[in-house]
Prior knowledge:
Chain A is an all-alpha fold. Chain A has helices spanning 18-41, 45-72, 78-98, 104-112.
Amino acid sequence: MTDFEPIDFSPLEPERDPRRWAKVADTVRLRMEAALLQRRREPDTFAVLTVWARPILAAAVVALLVLGSTAVGMGSAGVSRASEARRLAYLAESSVVHGRTPTGAQVVKAIIGRGAR
Amino acid sequence: MGRSDADLVTQVRLGDLAAADQLLQRYLRSCRAVALAVTGNEADADDVCQDAFVAAIERIDDCRDPARFGGWLLQIVRNRARNALRHHRVRATEPLDDAAPDTKYSASAEAERNELSERLRAGLAQLPEAQREVVLLHDLEGWKHDEIAELLSLPPGTVRSHLHHARRRLRRILGEKDAEA
């Protein structure tokens, strides 16, 4: 026998007891299935960001509009500007809470103050 | 050759059980061989290869090079097998569950096989770990030199050398035992 011939490792063969080895593979399969099911249920990071991006973006737009309109209206009637800011803040808050992007019409209504609520 | 490891890993990341099953069929035996090379005990090797494979699937996002999934997986197996050894979880006897032994062998044939496997384990225990891994992957699992080289990140020449020395030493050990008997 030379060192080029393989050693007979058949006594260490895992499938020497086929039922036992099948049980090992089945156990791994079951545990893998549970792990992959969990993976399919968990939303990935991108999906989470996508869900959050819209309301945050909408709130940012509304905040810019508030700042812009406040800057434009500096020195004019303070009461009117204060109520306008309140309406816009309400719109921003409700869009973040409900995860809805405000439409252009809603923003305009909030600024001019007719039928905003 | 079926789908590439990289392709299967991509599918597993999307939660594809069939892809994970293909990786299981491709590598579970090799995991067991490496676990056996480290622990020297078949029952522990079975436990370690199960845990390591499931851990690899759970941590599949950590596999930085999906084309080298096999090498990454075997490193997990090696680490877990060494931990098992460190925590003295190595069993003294083989049976780990209540499954009845396969009855296709007679009691005397089974006793002879057990004696042979005990001698092989004792012989393997005298080899360095790298030689044990190479000889088991080649002679028990049928992997080729270049496949083992890639799997273990070793130069092919080193794999050949490990295999040559492992066989020679094992034959000498087993021969000595024959002479003693």
